[in-house]
Amino acid sequence: MVVKVYGPAYASPKRVILCLVEKEIEFETVPVDLIKGEQRSPEYLKLQPFGELPVIQDGDFILYAIMRYYAEKYRSQGTELLGKTIEERGLVEQWLEVEAHNYNPAIYELTIQLLFSSKFGRPVDEKLVKESDEKLGKTLDVYEERLSKSKYLAGDFFSLADLSHIPFTHYLVGPMGRQHMIRDRKHVSAWWDDISNRPSWKKVLELCKTPFG
Amino acid sequence: MATPVKVYGPPLSTAVCRVVACLLEKDVEFQLISLNMAKGDHKKPDFLKIQPFGQVPAFQDEKISLLESRAICRYVCENYPEKGNKGLFGTNPLAKASIDQWLEAEGQSFNPPSSALVFQLALAPRMNIKQDEGVIKQNEEKLAKVLDVYEKRLGESRFLAGDEFSLADLSHLPNAHYLVNATDRGEILTSRDNVGRWWGEISNRDSWKKVVDMQKQQHSP
């Protein structure tokens, strides 16, 4: 029985899908329409009680903190995403948390404001956009410094930490028109070119269209 | 005895005491090197070398420097599997996955609104910053929705990830403690039957009581 991933059109599930592709794990996708509010339906809430994406079903097992589980379970196949030692793993965890607390909140807010406001019939909150741009800029300055010393975030190896940045950054340099935030930073730019050109990401984009073409 | 394990930051910081609680559960000796954030210690060049975001805590042992409290906790559990509470991060992959899930729920769903409320209700007045009623109301509503999910879960399960206390429960202690003890909104937790029962259990752990003692020994942040 194959792993089912819900909501492939959106960025957060794409992190999971990218991880499964890197680990050479077979999967199916199940569409969920956020604009129609399908994530609040009773059926969906049985799977993910917070009404959020992503969620996966693996046989009887339902999981919504997903990437680490699969990266560990399938350690011996596909790309090693967790580093090779406990210390490397520690750094992967660190940069995953940095993404979650210092990168994602700002870029997620920009996604909602700039890409989804019109779909929900709401005006853009310019103040929030400005604040988010500033926060994201400050975080990218720290990344620039880090990536001048290290090819990838956790070290000289591609990991789950780099992977988790890809789907939303794809929006940033594309439909959000903020490619200068990446291009103006020499090492961040080189890192972005490297990770966004991985065959796995190209495969994800082919399989799962975004809502923005 | 000198220990290579060092935690940097004031014990009154929620993120710092998340790490301290974990080290105490795991019975790992450590040194707490306090910082005076009011004086800007966390923005000084020496500290920025180990924590480039200028946040607390930072962690060092003989092998590694790390930031982000939840990453540090995961590392401590992996690096010292045989010490202290061996089941803190699960003893098999499925148990670990469940703990991970609720640790993520804490970080993504519980932490943002509870942090905002702790800041507005407990810290802002002390820092002479005006409270924002709109922000308070918004975050109360957000937190209430999250706690509705917890209430249901904790009616089916003794602790969040299963029948044993885990890193997922531990991660909630710092913010929940401030909500209950330093604001007048504690009933958001204590008035819910299952959440209240769970809060009573987890806040009575020896490790957490030690953390609270450490905090009491500090003066204002």
From TrEMBL, chain A:
Top-level taxonomic group: Eukaryota
Name of the protein in question: Glutathione S-transferase F9
Automatic annotation (TrEMBL), chain B:
Domain GST C-terminal residues, every copy: 92-221
Localization per Swiss-Prot or TrEMBL: Cytoplasm, Cytosol
Domain GST N-terminal, first and last residues per copy: 3-84
Keyword Transferase among UniProt keywords: yes
PANTHER family: GLUTATHIONE S-TRANSFERASE RHO, GLUTATHIONE TRANSFERASE
EC id: 2.5.1.18
UniProt entry keywords in alphabetical sequence: Cytoplasm, Detoxification, Transferase
Protein name, per record: glutathione transferase
Lineage: Eukaryota, Viridiplantae, Streptophyta, Embryophyta, Tracheophyta
Reaction catalysis annotation: RX + glutathione = an S-substituted glutathione + a halide anion + H(+)
PROSITE patterns found in the cross-reference section: GST_CTER (PS50405), GST_NTER (PS50404)
Gene Ontology MF terms: glutathione binding; glutathione transferase activity
Family: Belongs to the GST superfamily. Phi family.
